[in-house]
Amino acid sequence: MMTLSSSHQRPIDTATLLNIFPNCSIIQEDYVPQSLNNDLNHIIEFINYGLSHEIRDQPNNRVKQALKSLFSNNMGGKLLDIYIDMIRQKVCHNNGGDDDHDDHDGDDDSSSIVSTVRTIGLNKDKFLHIAKQLQFNYIQIQIFERSCNSVFQTIIQKNNYLSNQISNLFKNKLFSKNDGKEDLLIIKSTLQYIGLKQHMNEIIINVSINYIYNFINHNFGSRWEEPSMNILANWSSSVLYPTLTNFITSDEFNIEILNQLVKNELVKLRTKEAFDIIVDYPDSLATLKELKYCITTQKQRQHLVNTFIDSCNKRLLHAGANTIDIIKCYLSTIKSFLIIDPRGVLLDKVCRPIRSYLKDRDDTIEKIVHGLLDDSEDNELNDLAQELRNSNDYITPKIDDLNDLNWTPDPIDALPDFRKGNDLIESLISIFDSKDIFISEFMDVFCSDLLNLTDYNVTDALLKLELLKLRFGEREFNSLDVMVKDLIESKRIDHTIHLELDERNKDNGIFHSTVLSYLYWPNGAKSEEEFVLPTQLNNIFTNYCSHFEKLKQGRKLKLFSNKGNVELDLEFDDNRKFTFNVSPDKASIIHLFSSKEQENIKELSIDEIMNELQMSELLAKRAIAFWIKNQILLETKSGHYKILNSLDELSEKEKVGGTINNYYSTEVGIKADAEEEAVKLKYWPFIEGMLKNLGNMELTKIHSFLKMVVPKDNGNGYNLSEKQLKEYLDNEVKVEIDGNGYKLAKR
Amino acid sequence: MKLTIKRWHAVTSWYWDILNDELCGICRVSFDGTCPVCKYPGDECPLVIGECQHAFHMHCILKWLETDTSKGLCPMCRQAFKMNGGSDILTNSAAENDNNQNNNLGENTAEIVMER
Ligand SMILES: [Zn+2]
Ligand SMILES: [Zn+2]
Ligand SMILES: [Zn+2]
């Protein structure tokens, strides 16, 4: 510990002084008469005694006389220099070895710090007392005190251990409910005493800022539904401020400054949380509004922008994130940043990386288009569909600016397109240089929607088409207009034909058709896998054709045999009854079995089926697999099938499944077909890719691979059980069993 | 097993039953598409076949015949262009379309329209 009394120390005389301070002016430059030199030695002896003892003796007469003699010879200034040097030397000497404290860190430190600091105060008292005894004048005393302060300041500021200990002490005790504030007050007043008021204030402010941040983080971190500023302001004025006024002595410190500190720390926390806050939108609305009000400086804005972009890059803009999530986040970013900064300057900055990332993603347009057109509740980008529906507002761009008193001029660093964020759809479209690329996507979606219609009802399609035209301009929608009009015209034709139908042939009444102007439909409209209908079905179609040809002279109809939808009932001797909605290939196959049964042919081979219907093996096997799964057909031996007329024909094990199937086929079976197909289409590219690369894979491996790689878009990622996967693979003609695993079939 | 097909909603496409060409000799667009003026194919942009068996979008050949250079000849074979067929193939809808299309149809246009 630092003490100034050391019994081993020799008193200092001028010779020693010269030794220690070779440049010391009084000794070197001037000739000092012997008598004055003696006086000086007396005084130095007096000082040394004073410095080494606690007892404060008055100077004796000899010293008084020496002082008188010195001052009358104008050597007061020199004596002051000598005294200051002595102090410096003494303090530095005694304090030199104190740096080796850094290793231990015990509870005692608190009291040892306090006593160290207290000693500094006491020493300054002593030094000042001696100075006064030396009869320096007012100005000299001031000079001495300043020098003395700077010696002590050096000790505290240059000694990391000490200043850290002081900071820690304040950190632990300043806001604690326990006692111990006396220690802090001693330290605070001592530091002020030696001229470290500013330093002390800084320590306190830093400790406070830290404390405020932790408090906010603890109470409001990750909580964004409610505003926090009211509670914080209350806390600040009732808890923080009263504590701090005891320690901070400054005219510049007041409650407003404290509240600003609190706001800054809130901004710091919210900036750190920015990405999650924005993902949480609109639940985080309160926090966003509060942030707008709390964020005040350019530096804070810049920090918010940088932090958010960083998080985007780390957490969103990478291959593992799915496109819908990125679009959702982009939309939330737009809405959120317009709340924080309605001028859109910040938005423009944070949008850029997301926009350029979306631009490079293959499926962005597809997802946007589905988001716009899908009215169902499953639509994860429902905001887009909603906004499209409200598009009528869009025709007249709002000119709010003129009426808005809070209008601020566009800042110079704002870029021309920064207002694009005001309209979500526009801000997504504008990611891409041309609107044209959306059109073909629209056509695909309309194509599949329109082809799924069996009631010719285009009200919904027409509405969407009009809304899209408002956004994308009329010009590009020619084909879509023709497509929708085809449906309207088809309905008219169908109605007319049905009026003229020969009532005697009931069969003809079941047929309806959507008639396409094929040049205007995307490729998806054309069926890839054509086949020949069973005669009875084909007759129904030809009959319809002849009516069409009469109605539209010079024109004929071509059937897309594999498109469309057939609704059929199946009844069995064992009272099973089913209704199915299936594609024409499946209808044709079951029709083939049914008519062969009437000719007493019970069993058909795959080759016979392919031959009768001119159907590809792939299509035929898929359809057969569907009927087997629904327990309508039964495989008798490899590649041979028959109608399953009674469940008794099944083995016991199959029967159990059978009753379950029986139960839901009537209900769910209607949709099952389309869904099953969709599922297979979804997984097939992944399976094909894996098998292509790896040759042969075991079921378990394929299963776990799919779990990893199939994107979880729309909540329908890979969700088959291993058993379902096996069933699918066993029925999939494009793969074949190879040892313990599967490989791609040779074609 | 008893199979009852209750409803069959098929997808078909229409096409002009033209033997020789697929493209209109004047505008080089498929017959199943439209002339350069029309938006909707089929009813609104019908075809005509001349006695020479050359077929055109009706609007294309009418426009051609109006020009001085045509001299009333078929642009493909340079024979006088005469409509193939009789007045029985005029339709009301075609007459309506004429108005819509803002074409100055000649007196005998009615005879050339291949619509009901
Ligand atoms: Zn033409
Ligand atoms: Zn035309
Ligand atoms: Zn000709």
From TrEMBL, chain A:
GO biological process: cell division; metaphase/anaphase transition of mitotic cell cycle; protein K11-linked ubiquitination; ubiquitin-dependent protein catabolic process
SUPFAM superfamilies per the UniProt record, alphabetical: Cullin homology domain, Winged helix' DNA-binding domain
Annotated InterPro entries: ANAPC2 (IPR044554), ANAPC2_C (IPR014786), Cullin-like_AB (IPR059120), Cullin_homology (IPR016158), Cullin_homology_sf (IPR036317), TPR_ANAPC2 (IPR057975), WH-like_DNA-bd_sf (IPR036388), WH_DNA-bd_sf (IPR036390)
SMART domains membership: APC2, CULLIN
Superkingdom field: Eukaryota
Keywords: Cell cycle, Cell division, Mitosis, Ubl conjugation pathway
Gene Ontology CC terms: anaphase-promoting complex
GO molecular function: ubiquitin protein ligase binding
Residues annotated as domain Cullin family profile: 390-628
Similarity annotation: Belongs to the cullin family.
Protein name as catalogued: Anaphase-promoting complex subunit 2
From TrEMBL, chain B:
UniProt domain RING-type: residue ranges: 35-78
Swiss-Prot/TrEMBL GO biological process terms: anaphase-promoting complex-dependent catabolic process; cell division; protein ubiquitination
Pathway(s): Protein modification; protein ubiquitination
Main location per the UniProt record: nucleus
Record's keyword annotation contains RNA-binding: no
CC per GO annotation: anaphase-promoting complex
CDD domains found in the cross-reference section: RING-H2_APC11
Keyword list, A-Z: Cell cycle, Cell division, Metal-binding, Mitosis, Nucleus, Ubl conjugation pathway, Zinc, Zinc-finger
Any single Pfam family the record assigns to this protein: zf-ANAPC11
Keyword Zinc-finger recorded: yes
Localization in the cell: Nucleus
Family assignment from sequence similarity: Belongs to the RING-box family.
Descriptive protein name: Anaphase-promoting complex subunit 11
Organism: Pachysolen tannophilus NRRL Y-2460
